[in-house]
Every structure is written in structure tokens, then in C-alpha cells.
Write the C-alpha cells for this entry.
Amino acid sequence: MLGNIVVEEVGTVTKKTELGDNKVEVDLTANGQIKGVDQTSEWTYWVETRPDGSLYSEGHGVMTTTDGDVLNLRGMGACAGAGADGSVSWRGSILIHTDSEAFADLNGTALVFHYEVQADGGTHIPVIAMNRSGTRTAWAWN
């Protein structure tokens, strides 16, 4: 059953690299809170555009809290493709592992999320455009 919201953050794409075969690697930095504690996340992931226009993504990241806790992240997501205005609405999951006592309850828990990426008029590949911003909310699923 879905539990409480544990992560809320806003992120910005800082780098993209074309990988070929309809794949792009993306670096993302996000700031927000995990269980009420301020945090910064650094992600690297790839996005694949499928023949039907839908998008699939996998990646990994590291979240560091202002208290010095470090959480390792693995994520995957998908969406139907870009909206008419260029916005993208992701759905997916994140698995967390940490040695931090403060967040040890998240080990073995799947977080499910929706990630809304705003439109950016001049971009043809909206999900991976530089300096795009988006908002993520993630719930514990245990």
C-alpha cells in the first residue's frame, strides 16, 4: 500500500550527451526534502525514445542531506511521450540504500513517483533539454 510522501524536490538538467540509438544520457541536480530533511540529489540516467514516441529511462544517483546522510538511488521511469506543449509527465520507481541510521527504514522500500517536467518552447527532445526544471514527489510503498 502507498504510504506517506517521503521526497519532494525540484530538479534541473545540467548536462546531456547523445548516445545514439535514440538514447541520451542526462545529468540532473535536484534540491528538496526527504522525510522533512533538506537534501541535494545528483542523478545520471539515460532516456530512450521508443518507436511509438514513448520514453523509458533508467539511472542512478546519490542524495546527500544537510545532516551529512548519504543515500544511494536507483530509478526507472516511463511516460507516454511529450505533450502538445512539450511537457513530460513521468511515472516510475526509486530504490534506496543507505548506511544512515536516520533513513535505514527506507532500505528495502520502493518509492513510486510522478515527475512533471515543464514545457520549454524551443526544445525538440523536451525531457532532456538543458536547464529544464521539474518537480518530483515520491511515496513510500511497503
